[in-house]
TrEMBL record, chains A, B:
Record's protein name: LacI family DNA-binding transcriptional regulator
Domain of life: Bacteria
Region span, Disordered: 317-363
Species whose genome carries this gene: Myceligenerans crystallogenes
Annotated Basic and acidic residues bias: 344-363
DNA sequence: TTGTAAGCGTTATCAG
DNA sequence: CTGATAACGCTTACAA
């Protein structure tokens, strides 16, 4: 904003018309007819001068900034934020809007500060995103601004939200293992009591039950969601003779630890042990050997959906806030090389389960 | 921006003064004295009404938007973007500014579109960032806007830039290995001919030479910078009897591959083989076992420095653009468990090199 | 110490 | 079909 830019006034002068006319032609005002000749004159002038309308002035006048705010809890530590933001950005840009990004670091103090800064700038709406699926408390300042929650829910607030379909994810994971023929399964779940932990376990169990698995053929243990946690849990799980032949890990990092445990135990993946992860953190899922089959989290899609939703809300105006839409998005399973049929020694002649994956992608 | 917010006019009415006075007290205009009583009256009114100044109007008037744009090439695939943005955001917020984030996906088309969108919004300046250190071509539209390059250089443009100090990184890596007592070193470099590849090799060699290493005690090979590349290179490197006892890897992902090669060869890390990586991608450097000692890339710092720089440029005005400052930032070495003295079998009684790490952090 | 009024760059209403 | 002109919400000479 340092050097003065070309204004509509200069274009008008150059074209020898009034600024009104310039505005008319440049905005293609419906119902306003302008002579073809003057139209080209104006367009030429604008082009020649390199005129770019000043959004600030436009927004001031139209009460619409075509700008949205993205407030995330931690943008730097996980690779997730980028995908969500990209999804948001893509749909925003399609509407000539752009997005302010701020990161709170989980500090209420700075969150308030940042939201204030966004509001001051008259953002049309706000995307409030968590980096992991959880219930959140809505900052009070957002009560009167179009808002949608990403990876977060806030009961009673009437604010739309979108989260991953955890149950479906658990089902898909079980499905992958069952389809490969496994009949002795384990799930290393997150110790933390969060929606993802509940949902994935529910889905995993449900799908296993549907396949007729006995209770004692499905073990569920909990661990810290890092490689060390996975390692410890796997050592325990794999110590017994009737060890599981397929393990579903709460996330990919944790899965790294079970890879290590398996290696130490002389268990080959996938011949002796099949593993499925969660998150599809490319850097680990692709980096590990053999590649990790895993369930992807729909970050981009959540960002995109939320933004569509936000614009709908903005366009609907402050009037009726109809039943706030909410959505669970299912992520795809990414097949790599960590799943194979169980070796004969452990699961002789088991029949394969038919795949369930043909169900439609979105819950 | 949907519902009409409180304006300065309403505050004035509520306080029973003119809008001028409100402006004066709220902005603490220097040299303007206002009666203590009216000051509190105004402040009360503002608080009561929940007044928040409209930045758009302010900007229009003051020709300063307190807004900067961040254009990155890919924001979603690497975990780096988040850190750079966070650095930028932190210093921006300290100046009551906020940042628009856009990602180009390496497509000129969308880059132009996005930059236009930013300019239209009168950003005060632009941060142009690459996710890996490289020379770039400056989009022409940025020629007349305060700009600073992050992780990128553009010779002849006169635009300030900040990049990692690759040479120092290479030196530090060598230093870690030499200090541990290693005398047979290898560097698995990136096949791509990029500044990081040149710089790190230069630094690594220089430091090794300084330690008196012979040429044949330092092998340099190239590979794709992924686990597979590292694996292949390591297999080759470790096949010989006079294998290196310490390997420096161009990056952490590649290092994952050498971990695997070592495991297959029955070489223990760090007892039989020491490894140092680059990037400090926590998820792999911490996830791998034993933890990977690595050189961190100063993403946050680059983002922060660039933003300081940008504000300086903005405040200096469009007048003199003095010798554009440029900076190489050295990243810290993150010590974990992948480096130890070479085992006796291979390097009997070698003396330890004194550490070089005490040198100041910034080049 | 406080207020009037101009103007930042647009859009929109209403006359010509 | 085209053009004055009044907002939009704010800062800032300049007056009172």
């Amino acid at each position: 904003m340092t050097q003065r830019r070309v204004t509509i006034k200069q274009v008008a002068a150059e074209a020898g018309v009034s600024i009104t006319t310039v505005s008319h032609v440049l905005n293609d005002v419906p119902g306003k007819r302008v002579h073809p000749d003057t139209r080209v004159r104006v367009e030429d002038a604008a082009r020649r001068l390199g005129y770019v309308p000043n959004s600030l002035a436009q927004s001031l006048r139209t009460q619409r900034s075509n700008t949205i705010g993205f407030v995330g809890d931690e943008i730097a530590t996980t690779p997730f934020a980028g995908k969500i933001i990209l999804g948001a950005q893509d749909v925003a840009l399609a509407r000539d809007a752009v997005v302010f990004v701020v990161s709170t670091g989980y500090q209420r103090e700075v969150e308030n500060r940042e939201i204030e800064e966004l509001l001051r700038r008259q953002v049309d709406g706000i995307l409030y995103a968590s980096m992991y699926h959880r219930p959140v408390e809505l900052p009070p300042q957002l009560a009167s601004v179009p808002t949608v929650l990403i990876n977060a829910t806030c009961t009673g607030s009437g604010v739309p939200w979108v989260v991953p379909d955890e149950v479906a994810g658990g089902e898909d994971a079980a499905d992958v293992l069952l389809t490969a023929g496994h009949r002795r399964l384990a799930f290393i779940n997150d110790v933390d009591e969060i929606p993802a932990a509940f949902g994935r376990e529910e889905g995993f169990r449900r799908r296993a039950a549907r396949a007729g698995l006995h209770d004692d053929d499905l073990r569920v243990v909990t661990a810290e969601t890092d490689p060390a946690g996975g390692y410890a849990a796997a050592r325990q799980l794999l110590a017994h003779a009737d060890r599981p032949t397929g393990i579903f890990c709460f996330n990919d990092r944790l899965a790294m630890g079970v890879y290590r445990a398996a290696a130490e135990l002389g268990l080959r993946i996938p011949e002796d042990l099949s593993i499925v992860g969660f998150d599809n953190q490319e850097i680990v899922a692709e980096g590990v050997h053999p590649g990790l089959t895993t369930i992807e989290l729909p970050h981009y899609e959540m960002g995109a959906w939320a933004t569509e939703q936000l614009f709908d809300q903005i366009e609907a105006g402050p009037g009726a806030r109809p039943a706030a839409p909410a959505r669970k998005l299912r992520g795809p399973v990414i097949h790599r090389a960590s799943v194979a049929p169980p070796s004969r020694g452990h699961d002789p002649g088991e029949r394969r389960e038919p795949s369930d994956l043909a169900r439609q992608r979105q819950a």
